[in-house]
């Protein structure tokens, strides 16, 4: 079938991207789903910092690449071996499929699926296929999803169904921001009722971590970011205290659970400094490979602190997304508050500029013809 999608064609384009336009909206050909795959009509797709990291070369991928890894949509067709979904069902797409039989899949979410990671790195779906092309030109998949389009073919293991009552914008954020940030709080930091949580970095993932922390009974949640606007947003969402990074360190703020969601070594060092004796520092950010932090092993030993790396929030999507949806239904997880604005696909280069300037938590791409809600509107 013919689809329209946002294809990254260059990794060396200068900013502002609204001028250099490294992402081009193209008409593409999408093959029918294979036996274990599903055709999904995209209803909402979030613009995540990981998309920007690919664009800037921090997370290098082969091009051409159809971007987008955080999305929700409606099932339109099922592969021959898919018998547990129905056409018309709303689903969340997640950016790391779990094959279910490698050693990492037996780790209760602690380590990423080996086969899923290999497929993502190769720009293909879990069973090895590439379904996007223009004639003989093959377009790579982005993290098994490629949601910056009107339709996507994804592996069944990249999908979690949700109820029709979950709005598309909320469902989309469950697949990355909430799963990564919230999972880091519940699965990796294992925040306990009454404990204090510090979140370093208040982008989409960090704000999701903050919201999930606030949903834990009696927890005290502190937000840390260099952007005063982000601190104001965190307070509006319910953060008990907010600080700039240097201010937090100078004030001697400490917590037993600290989540770093920036993707820079300096932020990781800040998170370590804010971790109380015996506490857990969880890092979910994805810095450049050569961005190295300084760590004192003596300080770790003498204070009994633990450093935990957490990819995708150490989550098992099929298990954890229903947990977050239940919190949303109970009014404890206002995911819709993370939506900065809605955009159409043709605004994707401008959206990347906004993300790079730190102006947005989550911009959501919605179908052409749908009325937009901008940052100035009430979301």
From TrEMBL:
Alphabetical list of Gene3D superfamilies matching this protein: Medium-chain alcohol dehydrogenases, catalytic domain (3.90.180.10), NAD(P)-binding Rossmann-like Domain (3.40.50.720)
Domain Enoyl reductase (ER) residues, every copy: 18-366
Cofactor(s) the record lists: Zn(2+)
Taxonomy, superkingdom: Bacteria
UniProtKB keywords: Metal-binding, Oxidoreductase, Zinc
Family statement: Belongs to the zinc-containing alcohol dehydrogenase family.
Any GO MF annotation of the entry: oxidoreductase activity
PROSITE patterns found in the cross-reference section: ADH_ZINC
Pfam families linked: ADH_N (PF08240), ADH_zinc_N (PF00107)
Name this polypeptide is given: Alcohol dehydrogenase
Keyword Repeat annotated: no
